Amino acid sequence: MPQLGGVGITGSDPAAARAIRRTLLGRAAEDNALLFPAHFPGSGAAEVERDGTKFAIKKWAGFSRIC
Fold first, then answer.
1. Share of the chain residues as helix, strand and coil, in percent rounded to the nearest 5
2. Which domain of life is it from (predicted)?
3. 3-state secondary structure of 7
4. Which of 13, 21, 47, 62 fits 58 for a cystine, CB–CB 3.0-4.6 Å?
């Protein structure tokens, strides 16, 4: 994982938070990695793809809660 500057995505610097999200989404799209978003409803992971200059969920991998 690249160094993200030690700033959390919910940090007090909105520009840094946007840059971190774009880096994370870009890596996930390039590597076909699954993201496990903490603030999406339900249980599952998202496969991300580039959509022009934006990102989109390519496929949602739902699963049953384990706890």
1. 25, 30, 45
2. Bacteria
3. coil
4. 47
Copy the structure tokens of residue 33: 């990695």
DSSP, res 41: S
Both tokens of 32, joined, read 């076909």
Instruction: Band the pLDDT of 67: cuts 50, 70, 90.
Output: low
Name the 3-class secondary structure at 44: strand
**pLDDT on residue 7:** 45
Amino acid identity at 4? L
The structure tokens 């993201």 sit at: 35
**Is residue 13 over pLDDT 70?**
yes
